[in-house]
Structure formats: C-alpha cells, structure tokens
Queue: 2 jobs
Job 1
Amino acid sequence: MTIQNLQENLRAHIRSRIQRGELTGVALAQQAGVRQSHLSNFLNARRGLSLESIDRLLAGLRLEVLDLVPVDAMERRVRLPREADRLPVAVVSGRQGVGLARFTLEQVRETVKFPKAFLRRLRKRDVCRRGEWVRFVVVALDAASARSLWPASAGGARILVDRCYTSLRPYRPPRPNLYAVWLRSGCMVGQLTVAGGHLIVRPRNPDLPVESLPMGLAHGFSDYVIGRVCHFAAEV
C-alpha cells in the first residue's frame, strides 16, 4: 500500500467516525497534537500530512497501519498453504512407532498434515538402518506420558517424530536433541546418553526420574528409540 493510499484510507476512516458522532475534528486535533487547520485541510483533501502527523493521528485514534488495509488486500498478499503443499503424517501409539516399519489402515488413528517444505528441510541421521521405514509419525501421548514434556500437563500431547534420526549427535549443536523413547510404562520424551551398556533417558521434565534401559546386543538402543522429536503441541 502506498503512502497516498494510506492517507486516503485514514481520511475515510476519520470522516466516517465523525459522521457517526464518535469524535470531532477539534478533539482529534488536540489529542493528536496537530493543528486543526492542517487536519481540516487533510479531511477535505486539500493537502496531505507528514509521516510524523500520520503517526500522531494513528496514536490518537488507537490504530495500527494494518487497521487501514482492506481485508481483501490483506488476503491477496497472504499466501495460504494449499492442500498440495501439505503431507499427511500418521498418528500412532508409541509402541507402534518403535516397533513397526509401516502401518496398516487399521493401525493409523488419523493423520495430521504438515507443510512439505518443513518436512523436507529436516535432516536425517539414521544409525538403526531404518531406510525402508515410514520416516515421520505423530505419536499421541496420554496425560501421564505428556508429563515427561511439562511439569504440569492437564491433558495429552502430540509429538512429530523423525524415525530416521536415531543418532545421538546434536541436530543443532550445542543444544541437545529430544527423543521419543518407548518404555514399558509408555512413551517418554527426553535427552539420551549411553553409558555402561545402558541407554540413559533424562526426561525433559526435571521433576521426573532418570531412566536406565539395558541395550540388547542385536539392536542396541533401536529397541527403545522411536526417533528425534521435531515438533510438539499440548492438548488443553
């Protein structure tokens, strides 16, 4: 929108409010700190205003510049994601996420769509040989499992997991990764380390205890690790 368009929209807005009796030109000029003669000439399209005077009027009217942009113009400028730009990701349980390479229709609760561009820019680093696995899943956490994310969780949560990032190397050094891990009691989200033949799981919630899981000789920690958590959202 040009400065001229902005001034025209501001002029129309002030005129409309004066006609509805919501304000007067005198009161607005005093409140905004502009000369009444300048405001009168502006409203009658005999002159424009400086950017400083426009800012003062907007402050006096309690408006932002975007308030003067027509809705249809905003919609033309905002590019909403098309369905073709989004990919469905299966919502599964934590047990399915760690144990199944692929899923049947009966095993998929529902799907959640994510932008293709977001999923494509995520880097993978697989040490568990999951090349044939469905890479991304959404794991539905119940209220008890969601406590590993937040100290006080009233509801469940959903986490987007990259099952082809099973390396313990930081994705964004030096910040440690968060992983979804399957335990007998359910799913846990936390940081991972390996020590003494055990997988050490440190929950994101510091109020929960650290878990130590023995690693099998055949598969190592791939028996427990679902993958790196890329995104999470809480249910309220």
Note: The first helix runs from residue 3 to 19.
Job 2
Amino acid sequence: MPDFGLPDEIFRFFLVLARMGAIFAIAPALGEAQISPRVRAALALAVSLLLLPVLRDHLPALPADLGGLVWLILHESLVGLMLAGAARLVLSALHVAGTVIAFQGGLAFTQQFDPTQGTQSAITASFMTFLGIVLIFASDLHHLLISAIFGSYDLLPVTGVLPMGDFAQLVVRLVAISFTLGIKMAAPFLVFGIIFNLGMGLLARVMPALPVFFVALPANILLSFMLLLIVLPAMMLLFADAFEESLRMLLGQ
C-alpha cells in the first residue's frame, strides 16, 4: 500500500515537475524561446499538478537517503530532456527544407536570427520553422505531445534504468527521418533548380551577349516564391504527418 503522507506527496510532485520542467524547457512548440520563461514554468507547474493524481501509482515513495532523492530528480530531468530533444529533432526537418529552398531560390544570403535553432538561418528556414510551430498548435498536435509525456511513464518508469543505447538508436533514426523529410519537402525546388540552371546555361550558349546573371537572379527569386506558394500547403501537411508519427513512435504505438 503506497504511502500518501504529505512529504511523499511533495516529493512525488517534484518528481513529476522535474520531467515536465525539462520537457517544457526545450520541447517543440511548448518550449520555444519566444514563450516567456514564466509562462513555461507556470505551464509545467499546471501540467504537473494535473498529472500527479493519475501518475501516483507510477511514482515511488520518498527515499530514505539524500543520494536516492538526488538520483531520482536527476533521472527524471534527463528523461524529460531526452524526450523533448527527440521531438525537437523532427522540427529541424523544416530548417533543412528551408535552407535548401534558400540556396535553390537565391535567398541564402538573406540571414536572420532563428530563435528555434539559436543561430543565424536563411529567412526561408526561419519562416518555415515558425509556420511549423503555428501548425502544431492549429492542428492540436500539442495535445498529442502532452499525451506522449503521459505515456512516457510506461516506457521510461521513474525507477527504471536509463536506456541510453536505445535512446542513441532513436536519435540516429530521428536524425535520418528529419533529414529525409526535409529533402522530400524541398524536392520540388531541387527539380526546379536543375531545370532552371540548365535553361539559363542553354540561353547563355544561344545568346552570349545576354547578361545571364542579371536576368537569372531576379527570375530565380520570383519563380521560387511562386513555386513556394503552390507547394507550401502540401509541404506542411507532410511535416504534420511526420511529426504525428514521430510522437506516436515516442508513445510506443
């Protein structure tokens, strides 16, 4: 029969908060840098309070020694960071696609700070990343993310051993999925770039006096924007399906 004394309840709450706090620190959509740290802390507290009653059977009692207490808190923080980092890897597919689009469309020189990546990125990469975050909230995929957090207690119990080998394999798999997804999303622009450059090369051979560079650069940018308007809905739907599939993979479904 589990102990439901006040010290044990406080300890269990901080165990849940350790995992929630790590997740809300770096998780996609829920842990973005644009969200105030106070708001993220308040959300982590609220979700921890809501999940505590249903997770009580998954949580151990207060350890007798300080070492056991510190290890459990550290264990939960590491699990939260692992789950949030794995989910964020899928979001990087939008950054890959946006970077490829920028290079193919002649926009690679337009750089701006991307807070989701913490570095300078091409403007199309930043745009697609922000659009992906909006899509996650608009399609209620953040609810699935919270469900994945709840389901993680069955896959990664509090008193279990950290499966570092399995997590390393998952990271490798998600990196491959993310890069492949980014290339798939940018595939129309890769085809467009090949055809456009071949056409400009033939035009330069046929009309040597034509300043091809001055003609090609604005035409390339204009056609790239037009192509982006056409294929953007399909690209974002492809990302949404892949993001949902990755979350279900974290749930073990």
Note: Helices lie at 6-26, 37-55, 66-105, 123-138, 141-155, 164-185, 187-206, 212-250.
